Amino acid sequence: MDFRRWVLVGVGTCVALLPGNYYPSNMVDNQNWGAYSPYLPVAEYVAPPERCEITQLQRHGARDPTAGPAAKIAIAVSKLQNVSTYGDSSLDFIRNFTLDLGTNDLVPFGAEAYARYRELVSADNVPFVRASSSDRVVMSATNWTYGFSAASGLRFNPILSVIFDESANDTLRNSCDNIGSSDNQTDTWIAIYGQPIVQRLNSAIPGANLSSTDVYDLMALCAFESVATDSISDWCGLFDDEEWRDFEYEMDLDKYYSTGYGQPLGPVEGVGYINELIARLTSRPVNDTTQSNSTLDQSSVTFPLNRTIYADFSHDDQLIAIYSAMGLFKQTTPLDPTNPSSSGSNRTWITSQLVPFSARMVVEKMQCQYSSQDSEYIRVLVNDAVQPLNFCAGVTEDGICGLPAFVRSQSYSTSGGNGDWQRCFQ
């Protein structure tokens, strides 16, 4: 039997499918940087069971800070450099520190899918690649295509075929006008965990007058400089393990209450993409009334249904929305902005595991001999970890669920978000 295969590579802070361990080896223990964490697989990739054959499959890479955070980081550093003396010699590096990070630029992490999925491609069937139009997202997509091409010995050379205009309909970018903000929750938590750090640093650096927000910006600087230089930044040593866990919880809150389950209009941001995913899985035209671009999705040139590998590149907030629309990482208790432990020890909403730099979601479509007849099944992996898909009727212990059952489980998306999309513009 001729088994076709298809790969759709994620959506996140620029999505990139990295089948190897593409992260700095000296940073593997620093996974409390939330969405600024270097990529680390949550689990080792597990191939489908022997009785299954993959028939189809479905973030940007690490980057410098965007313009707003970069300006805030510069202010915090300036406060520290303008004081006359430091009370601790370990802080002397600050005096001669030069802030030379760019803004938005991708740092040099590669992206390659060929090693894992090379059997899916042929000269007539190379990956179909799309990206949202932000420069860093486009760069991630082209870096991915270059990596794929190089890994194949230049035999297979995918190109970036579609770039979505972020000012228009775009399933790879948030576009709900009335969506709320996570500021109340994140500001509350920053004020709580940041205050003891403020007191400690201001005591050691008299006259700096740091605020809790400055503390957050300096912690972000640790992550950005580390991924930019491929080594641990001196700024990281200013904070202990517990403080880093508190920093990550701020990012957990941010994603949960921006486009995650804590935001009433968060999941609807992922509906258009889920409907495109269903179209690819079922080889049927896209049926969507939300943010999809109907002109592009109705064309076999810009939305083909006969490819074996699809790669989409986007932002972390959009990937969070897609997780939420699909039903992944649901929390039994909402995240408390005053107490990380209130959600219990089984909390799965951990940003560094959901959307680190180069995060990816992969959907594999396969044929499995679970019965007398071959049938189509899917499984979903997030950062290489197979998802349990508890919302999908009949799912196996291997995380494999029948394609018809998966489509039925996505009624929130197939219904257009149960009216939530209209609420975005009322």
From TrEMBL:
Keyword Cytoplasm found: no
Keyword Glycoprotein: yes
GO cellular component: extracellular region
InterPro entries, sorted: His_Pase_clade-2, His_PPase_superfam, Histidine_acid_Pase_euk
Keyword annotations from UniProtKB, A to Z: Disulfide bond, Glycoprotein, Hydrolase, Secreted
Residues annotated as signal peptide: none
PANTHER family cross-referenced by the UniProt entry: 3-PHYTASE B, MULTIPLE INOSITOL POLYPHOSPHATE PHOSPHATASE-RELATED
Quaternary structure annotation from Swiss-Prot or TrEMBL: Monomer.
Protein name: Phytase A
Source organism: Lentinula aciculospora
